[in-house]
Amino acid sequence: MKNRLGLLIQKQWPLFLAFLVPFMIMSILHAIKGVYPFGNETVLTIDLGQQYVDFFAYYRRTLLEDPSGLFYSFSKAIGGDMLGLWAYYLASPLNLIFLLFPHHQVSLAVTVLTMIKYGLAGWSFAYLLKKQFDGDNFTIVAFSTSYALMGYTIVNQFNIMWLDGMIFLPLIILGLERLIKEQKGVFYSICLALALFANYYIGYMICFFLVCYFVFRLISYDDSAITEKKDKVIARIKTSLLFIWDSLLAGGLSAVLLLPTLHSLMVGKASYTKLDLKWETDYPVTEIVSKFFVGAFNFDQMPSGYPNLFIGSLALLCFCFYFFNRLIPLKERLAALFITSFFVFSMNISAMNKIWHAMQYPNWYPYRFSFVVSFFLLLLGYRSFTKLKGVSPLATFLTMIVATGTGIYVYSKEFDFLTPIQIIITLLFIYLVLLLLILKPQQYKWMGLVLFLVTSIEMTVNAGISLSRLSYVDQDSFTVYQQGQQQMSDWFKQYDDDFYRLEKTFVRTKNDSFQADFNGITHFSSTFESTVPELFGRLGNPVGGGFLTYSNGTLLTDALFGIKYYASEQNDLYWSDQEDIPALIEKTSLPLKLDHFRYDTIESDFPLLSKTSTNTDKYQFTLKQTKPDLNDYQKIAATNQILLYKNPYALPIAFGSSDNVSSLYLQRKRPIEMQENLLNALVGKGKTTTYFFPEDFTSTIYQNLLLSESSFEPTVSIDDHTKKASVKFQFIPETNDAYYLTMGSVIGEDEVKLTLNGEPYAFYDSSDETLVYNIANNDYGKTMTFELELVEDSISLEDIQLYRLDSSAFMESITTLQSGGMNVEEYGNTHMEGVVTIQDNQNFLMTTIPYSTGWSVSIDGNPAPTEKVVDSLLGVPIQSGTHRVEFTYRTPYLFEGFVLTLISIVLLGMTFYVQRKNSI
Predict the structure, then answer these.
(1) CA distance 422 to 294
(2) For this UniProt entry, which segments traverse the membrane (predicted)?
């Protein structure tokens, strides 16, 4: 056994090193940075820390506890299809590593997974070079290290689901080469199918690249063995047809995931797609050379920057030599020049950039396809390296001159992501590698080792500089919040085993519900169904492409969407991991403002949420809203940091209503009117009740502001920038009702600071809709002052209006709807069953489940038709009386995709048999 292992290592040592070197380089770099377990840092940053890590926790829980979560989840806002989300974020086979780690170590699992993906990318590229060029020395490891640690990988390591494409791409190209040379495409089909399965988005870009690469190889392929011109044309046609067939097979093999995902995209991300193309340049094309320098990256490059193209000096110089290499056929070099020019064109012209990104301009992380360009440069570079004898001294000298001139040009442009030291370091590496290449490394065995060491050092320097320019989540702060929130969620499950929704006034991410396993409303993902954020935006909450923040709810929306429980901050919100105190605060420390609610002393256990306020290790988290109307809810438990509330007005997930709601449509920038119309339509009774009454401010005070009403909406601007500039709205509530203020869609933390009676008012940045802010409740006779202090030079005071919610009318209507509420007896992610009693004046079963063709409903065992209500929700016509209702979800097109995958497997087997028979 030992002899076999030793023999394997002796034969395959370049492949072992190709994995081990990038794995160790990145592991050591992260250890030096103090990444857990070597310190208190994590790799969690940007979307990895704010989005993906929560999905990974959900992934682990789904596979270990409830596989139905693969298809649907009520943790995704008010409910949503999960297979599309799974396909984009979680389908990588390597994610199985999360099953080896406990829930509280998910950040460590992410770190280990990232290091493994670096190693596998290096191994994959080395395997391609070994099979394609018969390489077996240190230069293979040098080029594979350049591939694994290229600039794209380093700056996108937090987009961890994209890295699978880098692992599969070399294998796909190896399969394509076999298809072209040997007419065998099964390996190609399987590898491409795996890439599409692991991440369809990156898979799409790989498919686009494959067309380009196939054209390149079709032109450059050596067919000198075929003498007749006609036979050459036939051979190319045959190869092209085989390429198309095997590519379609790859799509068919992954159809079980791709078909449902395509449907999910059509009702989600793809609905934002605009087909207009702008044939204009994004930047001066010569500036692209700046990204070939060491550490050419900073934070500002993420929202809008240049393509990440750093591949190291060895690969870059050999790529440049490729076009002057006499030993490489001219037609191949011309074809390569054409494809390279096309790639440059794609990275500079706006329309081409949009096409590469599936007809949607990327929101942050520009030029996400640049990894295929880097791959192409590296592949041509290695081919050139194997034929260095064909490079003349003149070409080498001209390359040195061009490199020096490029350094001077880049220095003169003063790019904010490049310092003079970085430019000098890059040029020193280029000169050193040029010197080594002049010595003809093929003639000296030790030269390969030297090139490998130089390349490894250069790639390490680039990685170190690039990674240092981002901030990361601390391990302690992440773990404390993660476990504390989980304990809160577990406590609620013990307290109430019915179906309910839970929301919070504080947040770590918009996907806390996935991390801690509860049914929330706030959500963010690229696969979010567009109808849900559109609905909540119309009701006065911040929404955008792929996200919804339930931070501006009213008593009315809390009730309608069944938010039965609320967690809110008490005093300053921080959690610590030291020194427990009793979990429940004494009743005397929680004076109730409404004596008609009873405060229950419930035994609870929040060891990580119940900490003293004197600890030195404190972890501050974000408040997303100020919500005075929580005083109308019942306080049920508390810790030193949070208060837990029960909402007595919350409706169940399904309830009887009037069918008037089926003819209601969404209205823009009228959130209060929309809420009122929705409740009236649900209640019916043939009359319209006014729930929100417009109120006047007693005074509006402008301080150091210039008011302009020349535009469509009034605008205020700062008069003297050396003084505070603000506008104050004052009023005195004449009742204890809840008061709400509407404001336009231009209010954010970068524009204003908000205070209520001198205290900071927590809010989430607005979006395209008019938002609703709760600014008073139970404040009869008090002078309320709501102040907007300008941060920017000017803001628009659009749609500002004060409203009072008539609590009596509101409670009367909610009580009516509650009387027809469904008693949920069984529930899960894809199934719900219960009994509902429909009143005589009700003829419609309204739900707060997002409408989807995947939901089927049966009433008393008989299938019932479903309707889309208010452009977003599921409703069912129903007769009065007591009924048993069953909801079942089946992912649309999953069965069709499964059948297509089975057919493709059969066709793949037949293809393999035919190709093998023809090769004998």
Answers:
(1) 6
(2) 12-32, 83-101, 108-126, 138-155, 162-180, 186-219, 240-259, 306-325, 334-352, 364-382, 394-411, 417-439, 446-465, 893-914
Residue 505 — φ and ψ, nearest 5°? -85, -5
Helical axes 163-182 vs 370-385, angle rounded to 10°: 50
CB 392 within 8 A of CB 301: no
Nearest to 124 by CA among 94, 150, 153, 148: 148
Bridge partners (DSSP) of residue 611 are 580
> What gap in Å lies between CA 785 and CA 791, rounded to an integer?
19
Residue 137 reports pLDDT greater than 90: no
Task: Enter the tokens of residue 6.
Answer: 């030793």
Q: Which of 527, 659, 668, 540 is nearest to 86 (CA)?
A: 527
DSSP string, 380-426: HHHHHHTTGGGS-HHHHHHHHHHHHHHHHHHHHHT-TT--HHHHHHH
Helix H or strand E encompassing 702? strand 699-703
Which residue matches tokens 């066709």?
907
Read off the tokens for 711: 């535009």
Half-sphere exposure (Cβ direction) of 841: Cα atoms closer than 13 Å: 10
Distance between CA 673 and CA 801 in Å, rounded?
Answer: 12
For CATH 2.60.40, the residue range(s) in the chain are: 656-671+678-687+806-889
- CATH fold, domain 656-671+678-687+806-889, is Immunoglobulin-like (2.60.40)
579: phi then psi, degrees, rounded to nearest 5: 55, 90
The CATH 2.60.120.260 domain(s) of the chain lie at 692-805
Q: What does DSSP say about strands 506-507 and 692-695: parallel, antiparallel, or unpaired?
A: unpaired
β-strand 844-850 against 873-877: which pairing, if any? Answer: antiparallel
What is the tens place of the pLDDT at every residue in 841-882?
Answer: 899 999 999 999 999 999 999 999 999 999 999 999 999 999
Q: Residues with Cβ < 8 Å from 76, sequence gap 6 or more? A: 82, 85, 513, 514, 523, 525, 528
Cβ atoms within 10 A of the Cβ of 464, count?
Answer: 17
Helical segments of 134-162, H only: 138-148, 151-155
Query: Max Cα separation, the chain?
Result: 99
Terminal C-alpha separation, the chain: 34
Strand 801-805: give its sheet, edge to edge.
692-695, 801-805, 739-743, 771-776
Q: Are 438 and 399 in contact (CB under 8 A)?
A: no
CATH number for 692-805 (one of 2.60.120.260, 1.10.760.10, 1.10.287.3510, 1.10.8.60): it is 2.60.120.260
Residue the block writes with tokens 């290091």: 115
DSSP string for 176-219: HHHHHHHS--HHHHHHHHHHHHH-HHHHHHHHHHHHHHHHHHHH
Per the structure block, which two tokens stand in for 614?
């004197």
The DSSP result for 576-643, as a single string, is: -SS-B--SS--GGGS--S-TTS---------TTT-B-TT-S--EE-EE----GGGGGSEEEEE-SSEE
Confidence of residue 767 (pLDDT cuts 50, 70, 90): confident
In tens, the pLDDT along 459-508 reads 999 999 999 999 999 999 899 888 888 989 999 999 999 999 999 999 99
What is the CA 466 to chain-centroid distance, rounded?
21
Whole-number mean pLDDT of the chain? Answer: 91
CA–CA separation, 324 and 470 (whole Å): 39
- Integer Cα distance of 102 and 116 in angstroms: 19
**Reported pTM:** 0.93
Q: Is 658 left (phi over 0), alpha (psi -120 to 50) or beta?
A: beta
Query: Is the CB of residue 477 less than 8 Å from the CB of residue 17?
Result: no
3-state secondary structure of 277: coil
* 571 — pLDDT class (breaks 50, 70, 90): low
